[in-house]
Amino acid sequence: MLIRFSVENFRSIDGPTQLSLVAMDKGHLASRAVTGVDEELLALVGIFGPNASGKSNILAAIQWLRDAVVRSLRTWDEGIPVDQFLFGPASGPASSFDIEYVIDGVRFDYQLEVTSEEVVYEGLFHYPLGRRRRIFERNRLDLVLQDGLGSLSGARKLLTPRSLMLSIVRRFREDLTLSFANAIAEIDSLGLGRPRRVYGGGGPGFNSGRLVSGPRWYLQPDVEDLEDLEDDAEEDDRARYIKAVAAIREQGIALLRMADLGIIDVQVIRDENAEARGVPASAARRTQFIHSSGEETFALDMAEESAGTRTWFALVGPVLDALRRGGVLIFDEIDASLHPRLSAELLGLFASPETNPRNAQLIFTSHDASLLARLNRDQVWLTEKNAQGATELVPLTDFGGDRVRRSQNLEKAYLEGRFGGIPDVDLITVYRALGLMS
Description:
Layout: E1 2-8, E2 17-20, E3 31-33, E4 40-42, E5 44-48, H1 55-75, E6 95-103, E7 106-114, E8 119-126, E9 133-139, E10 142-145, H2 165-168, H3 175-185, E11 188-190, H4 209-212, H5 223-227, H6 235-259, E12 263-270, H7 272-276, E13 285-293, E14 296-301, H8 307-325, E15 328-331, H9 334-337, H10 340-351, E16 361-366, E17 380-385, E18 391-395, H11 410-415, H12 427-433
């Protein structure tokens, strides 16, 4: 689980800005006791604030770090694509990122400093038996490895001024570093305006994650799917595979019914004539939703469904994947994509231990104050811009006294402006701009 994330000198963020998923109020629905850390951690956190206050940039910084781990070896040859502070001189020459994570009871801390030209500093540490130990640390190209990590000795040959060591270790089968690097690489994002990643699988034996989660969760395990398994796969492996696919598919259909109670199934129609003419298989298939009406059923193509149903359908894969793996999902402007009822249902999926037994985490941004009714005070963060135009991120728990209590109606207090984080609308200026008054 993600413990903390901090960033400095990135887009609208100037000085050190930290998002913590440590629970301040223990024992509520979304807090989790986790081996390896003394505090309880949150499965669900929301960031609220007015437009252009920098909410999205907090999530964009997490996504940037995730992409850096995945892409630095392949795409950073000509420079490091980091957007530094946009509104004047930054507090320092480098952009810095720091993420703390706990994996299988082991706490990790990864630190990175980069400019557009080079990796200035990079370090990965862990806390076995509660004591901080270095796994690797670099200052530019000067790399130091923890004793006993001889399997990573070949990583030195791949190290360049613009490649991350954390990217490099993913090419080696060293369990300690690989588990952490993959956890960061598998952080998923929605609403941030870039193509979604192609899901891969993990797990023992055959690639059990390839169909069990991701965009194709709704496909039945047909003959073609089974042929992709190793020829020597045991029969019980195949049986477990089919059972896993069926279970995830059933869960996906259940989630889809939240958006439209009339949907009972999803099917893919193949145009064999188009495939015979050389049309790519992906273009020769179309997805249909099966609806029930009394005792009758009928199919609608994807394009005939409502925008809300199509949006929810696109979310099912990422949500299932995060819940299955216990991963992190970040969702920008959740209220812009979903009906408030569906937004609330999604929050409930991550908050409840019953639907989220592996402690997946959802971090989202929103303007929708009604969602505050679904959150405890330690799950709420607020953004505003200071006089220099820089984003300031503060937890709701920083507001003391009568302004915020555990039992308080957070939605009402937020809309009353007790915590800031809401637009300061000058109606007179708006009316004048519209020509409604002089």
